[in-house]
TrEMBL record:
Keywords from the UniProt entry: ATP-binding, Coiled coil, Helicase, Hydrolase, mRNA processing, mRNA splicing, Nucleotide-binding, Nucleus, Spliceosome
Organism encoding this protein: Canis lupus dingo (dingo)
Primary location recorded for the protein, binned into one broad class: nucleus
One GO BP annotation of this record: mRNA splicing, via spliceosome
Region (Disordered): 1-31
Name of this chain's protein: RNA helicase
MF annotations from Gene Ontology: ATP binding; hydrolase activity; RNA binding; RNA helicase activity
Leader sequence residues: none
């Protein structure tokens, strides 16, 4: 490690009140004492007065100062929920909504789901009694569908506003509008210490309330040379910190579930081998799909003598605060959605810092990560990239999600809310013009809008389903092909995407065999259907999952999602029916939704049908070896190449059947019908992809 003496986070705004991590005694202090110790507490009265005086208030405060957990409680105590009125607090991430609601319920001594609850997609933990509602920003957006003036809410707090998610940005426009004709509605925009002036300007110069934070200095270390394999580097670094550094917990930032699980497994494996040579290391993951009991474990105090390492997605950057973190490990990678408005192609990207900077992050994010080390005492942040990369490759400005994602979903929602003139919608930062046009065009192709850009009956139904327009369309189409049972399963399995199969390092061969045993001709969607069907036949057994290397948790979630979607079928006038094994019907229904995502095999590999973009089948796909001529994909993931994930073989004639307005027979002709290359990729590059995906790093 090379220390960079200049690279400190900003100096503490207030004098540190004691540099040691919380002791046993402190941890046992009553809930109220903990509440009083938070930086926001001394400002309670002042804050409530400011809220009383102003309709819109921007609240700025360091992460961990108590904005999310305390402010809604203050409002509750102040009587903002009298006469059955509710307080909404939005979170960009589902995990944060769940975890924070659980925390607040505990602080208030109520059962989660009673006075305090959360509402996230496919999971509603609220009741008639719930007055403090933590919810994802997407869920509040959907509230506008049933209650366009949010009449039952007295306060709306848009939290983590600095994240600038698509849904948060759309909320800004809608809430600003509602606030105009509901003068009694209070609007709070809470943010980490970024961007607050912009929010103020947007809300007609609303005042900014600043909560001074506490921060201890953080020493920053960089690697001397770029790391080739950052996952391995992370694991080694964690162990190094564990062995050489004084007490204090470790926080590691990785990009997603697969990576986090791989890292945790590697860590546990090495600790096991080191046995009693090292002190106990508790390895705890945290990511969006982790069940809540597992999530809660990251907050439990570390037993004396042991050390905790929390392996997290960037949720731990600002949404969650874990006490006791002294060391932060930042590999400088991130999973990002990126969008090309020229081609309308969206992909998920895991890229190193140098490329990553192009899409979003910035120094701000790296500094947020570092800042997590200095909450309770002086900390250390180890960056798995070079000081040069930090200085030269990070961009300083954030590109809000609205400018790098497809807008089909929100355009459909806004149209359902009766907002037709999207070009003049009050955006904090407007999306690119082409992206809006493409969204309209796509919704037109899906039959959700007519040629005047008005919502059709089918579009109204699509908006009812809390899924992407293409997925909604697929579900609606299952009526025509009489296969809604199967399509619901496919839809549910797609929404727990990529976390179905389990591949423990010591049983790779068994796990791979188990996976291949589920393969069915036709492609990955049918494989997912097959897994679910067999699981259902086993009586939804966890033992069955264990034996087949399938993740029980993911399956349970798929079952929940499926049930919820099934409950909505009636509203969208789709009857329950089964294809009785005629999978062509299932495949056609999927094609009816995903005809936008098609590719054909050419002499030079796969090209998307419309945009002629080069794409590749993901090495995990059941069709990787087969290389069918025509296919559709669920999503694109960009690493070194554009990989299609969840691939289904189709026939070109189906495209004319399901989307005659979109495809012309001519463009579906096959000029070279024979002599297709059997395989495009050699074995060597396949191994390389797998390495790059970092799924199976030994
Ligand atoms: P902010 O929103 O300003 O970042 P929070 O209200 O989230 O701050 O956090 C305030 C305090 O509550 C922090 O010290 C944090 O550790 C604690 N906290 C938040 N959520 C939980 C939880 N689920 N379990 C335990 N402690 C929590
Ligand atoms: Mg917060």
């Amino acid at each position: 490690w090379k220390a960079d003496p200049e690279a400190h986070t900003p100096p503490p705004l207030q004098e540190p009140s004691g540099p040691s991590p919380p002791s046993q005694a402190q941890q046992k202090e009553s809930v109220q004492a903990v509440r009083r110790s938070l930086p926001v507490f001394p400002f309670r009265e002042e804050l409530l007065a400011a809220i009383a005086d102003h309709q819109v208030l921007i609240i700025e405060g360091e992460t961990g100062s108590g904005k999310t957990t305390q402010i809604p409680q203050y409002l509750f105590e102040e009587g903002y929920t009298k006469k059955g009125m509710k307080i909404a607090c939005t979170q960009p991430r589902r995990v944060a909504a769940m975890s924070v609601a659980a925390r607040v319920a505990r602080e208030m001594g109520v059962k989660l789901g009673n006075e305090v609850g959360y509402s996230i997609r496919f999971e509603d933990c609220t009741s008639e009694r719930t007055v403090l509602r933590y919810m994802t920003d997407g869920m509040l957006l959907r509230e506008f569908l049933s209650e366009p003036d949010l009449a039952s809410y007295s306060v709306v707090m848009v939290d983590e506003a600095h994240e600038r998610t698509l849904h948060t940005d759309i909320l800004f426009g809608l809430i600003k509008d509602v606030a105009r004709f509901r003068p009694e509605l209070k609007v709070l925009v809470a943010s980490a210490t970024l961007d607050t002036a912009r929010f103020s300007t947007f809300f007609d110069d609303a005042p900014v309330f600043r909560i001074p934070g506490r921060r201890f200095p953080v020493d920053i270390f960089y690697t001397k040379a770029p790391e080739a394999d950052y996952l391995e580097a992370c694991v080694v670094s964690v162990l190094q910190i564990h062995v050489t550094q004084p007490p204090g917990d470790i926080l590691v930032f990785l990009t997603g579930q697969e990576e986090i699980e791989a890292a945790c497994e590697m860590l546990q494996d090495r600790c096991r081998r080191l046995g009693s040579k090292i002190r106990e290391l508790l390895v705890l993951p945290i990511y969006a799909n982790l069940p809540s009991d597992m999530q809660a474990r990251i907050f439990q105090p570390t037993p004396p003598g042991a050390r905790k390492v929390v392996v997290a997605t960037n949720i731990a950057e600002t949404s969650l605060t874990i006490e006791g973190i002294i060391y932060v490990l930042d590999p400088g990678f991130c999973k990002q959605k990126s969008y090309n408005p020229r081609t309308g192609m969206e992909s998920l990207t895991v890229t190193p810092l140098s490329l990553w900077g192009r899409f979003e992050t910035q120094e701000a994010s790296a500094n947020q990560r570092a800042g997590r080390a200095g909450r309770v005492a002086a900390g250390k942040c180890f960056r798995l990239y070079t000081a040069w990369a930090y200085q030269h490759e990070l961009e300083e400005t954030t590109v809000p999600e609205i400018q790098r994602t497809s807008l089909g979903n929100v355009v459909l929602l806004l149209k359902s809310l009766g907002i037709h003139d999207l070009m003049h919608f009050d955006f904090l930062d407007p999306p690119p013009y082409e992206t809006l046009l493409l969204a309209l065009e796509q919704l037109y192709a899906l039959g959700a809008l007519n040629h005047l850009g008005e919502l059709t009956t089918s579009g109204r139904k699509m908006a009812e389903l809390p899924v992407d327009p293409m997925l909604s369309k697929m579900i609606l189409a299952s009526e025509k092909y009489s296969c809604s049972e199967e399509i619901l399963t496919v839809a549910a399995m797609l929404s727990v995407n990529n976390s179905i199969f389990y591949r423990p390092k010591d049983k790779v061969v068994h796990a791979d065999n188990a996976r291949v045993n589920f393969f069915l001709p036709g492609g990955d969607h049918l494989v997912l259907l097959n897994v679910y069907t067999q699981w259902a036949e086993s009586g939804y057994s966890s033992q069955w999952c264990y034996e087949n290397f399938v993740q029980f948790r993911s399956m349970r979630r798929a079952r929940d999602v499926r049930e919820q979607l099934e409950g909505l079928l009636e509203r969208v006038e789709v009857g329950l029916s089964s294809c009785q094994g005629d999978y062509i019907r299932v495949r056609k229904a999927i094609t009816a939704g995903y005809f936008y995502h098609t590719a054909r095999l050419t002499r030079s590999g796969y090209r998307t049908v419309k945009q002629q973009q080069t794409v590749f089948i993901h090495p995990n796909s059941s069709l990787f070896e087969e290389q069918p001529r025509w296919l559709l994909y669920h999503e694109l993931v960009l690493t070194t190449k554009e990989f299609m994930r969840q691939v289904l073989e189709i026939e070109s004639s189906w495209l004319l059947e399901v989307a005659p307005h979109y495809y012309k027979a001519k463009e579906l002709e096959d000029p070279h019908s024979k002599k297709m290359p059997k395989k495009i990729e050699g074995e060597a590059s396949r191994t390389q992809h797998q390495l790059l995906f970092l799924l199976y790093v030994i």
